[in-house]
Design a protein that fits this description.
By secondary structure, the protein is of the alpha/beta class. The protein is built from five helices and five strands; from the N terminus they run E-H-H-E-H-E-H-E-E-H. It binds 1,3,4-trihydroxy-5-OXO-cyclohexanecarboxylic acid (DQA). The site of 1,3,4-trihydroxy-5-OXO-cyclohexanecarboxylic acid (DQA) has 10 residues, from loops.
Length: about 140
């Protein structure tokens, strides 16, 4: 499987950013951890983080025809970026949404995901395990 993992704004600060909410692992720690999981063995996984909405959208467009699936943690864009939602809906690439924290157990504004219904799966509050669950969902979907 060829998978693109996208992480949005402020996720570059994982490990130091509100660790009581997001934990002490950095994004690099999560990447190394995922690479060691047995289910990902033999897969090509590319990670990309940006704080910029347009860069996320460009990355989704350029993935067309090149990947079997996308895993995305859009950070706060989750809650209001219709442009991101439209990008996911446009490319016809199976996409799974991941949040480290449980967005339903926090502030009201976090309870809405504008991308949820253009994704084939949604994992929230599982910490880094959410990325592994998302991978398994894409694996099942692709049949690879
Ligand atoms: C997050 C949840 C979002 O509400 C928040 O804006 C983030 C991280 C998560 O992984 O729990 O930046 O997507």
């Amino acid at each position: 499987m060829n998978i693109l993992i996208l992480n949005g704004p402020n996720l570059n600060l994982l490990g130091v950013r509100e660790p009581e909410v997001y934990g002490y692992d950095s994004l690099d720690d999560i990447e190394s951890w995922l690479n060691k999981q047995p289910e990902v063995e033999g897969s090509e996984i590319a990670w990309f983080q940006t704080n910029h909405e347009g860069e996320l959208i460009d990355k989704i467009h350029s993935a067309m025809g090149n990947v079997d699936g996308i895993i995305i943690n859009p950070g706060a864009f989750t809650h209001y970026s219709y442009a991101l939602r439209d990008a996911i809906a446009s490319v016809n690439i199976p996409t799974v949404e991941v949040h480290l924290s449980d967005i339903y157990a926090r502030e009201e504004f976090r309870k809405v995901s504008v991308i949820k219904d253009v994704c084939i799966g949604h994992f929230t509050g599982l910490g880094k395990e959410g990325y592994a669950e998302a991978f398994k969902t894409l694996e099942r979907e692709s049949g690879k």
